[in-house]
């Protein structure tokens, strides 16, 4: 489990695709995030929970299976890409953000970026099926960053749903959001509680 509080950024050293195996191997430099990690340990990379398969100092490799490549922006990473990093939350650790599983649901698109002096608003487009799982003042993880939704599109906005978030300067500086521009892809993980409620309702409220 993660909290969406990014603890640093890393740099992609390379990504090796194996189409016949429906797999890619991602290698990255992760300063400050490999101590006590161990093979099989978890690290969130742009909000995607990945497992360390090779370790060499601050460099690690992870296997990215086809499902993850299809559901996230990981396959678009290239050598030199900067990524958000977060180690999993230890038992008894502070939950400063919200419950983030590292199970990215979909990829959204930055529709607008507006500067307001001391903070910045981003509007993120998302597929219709995920719009009911978002709510004003609810939580969302964008590229692994725990954020509060400040506005949502109207229920009737089929084909054009979006959420807005406000981001303060320190988050812009310490994460990849500072470089995000209109048109950029971004990983989205909606609140896990919303997903369970929706699933329960699909079965008639559990009756």
Structure notes:
The chain has 3 helices and 12 strands, in the order E-E-E-E-E-H-E-E-E-E-E-E-H-E-H. The chain is mainly β and 207 residues long. It folds into 2 domains: 80 residues, Elongation Factor Tu (Ef-tu), domain 3; 97 residues, Elongation Factor Tu (Ef-tu), domain 3. The strands form 2 sheets. Strands 1-2-5-4-3-6 form a 6-stranded antiparallel barrel. It starts with 7 loop residues before the first strand and ends in a 5-residue tail after the last helix. The mean pLDDT is 94.
| β-sheet strand percentage | 35-45%
CATH-defined fold name of the largest domain: Elongation Factor Tu (Ef-tu), domain 3
Could you give the distance between the termini?
A: 30 Å
Report low-confidence residues grouped into runs of 5 or more.
none
Q: What is the typical, i.e. mean, pLDDT? A: 94
| Count of structural domains | 2
Considering DSSP H and I runs of 4 or more, what fraction of the residues is helical? Answer: 10-25%
Total of helices:
3
Q: Main beta sheet, described? A: 6 strands, antiparallel, barrel
Shape type: globular
Biggest sheet, spatial arrangement of strands: 1-2-5-4-3-6
Structural class assignment:
mainly beta
Under the CATH scheme, which architecture of the largest domain would be assigned? Beta Barrel
Number of strands: 12
CATH C-level name of the largest domain? Mainly Beta
- Please give the radius of gyration in angstroms: 17 Å
Topology pattern, helix = H, strand = E: EEEEEHEEEEEEHEH
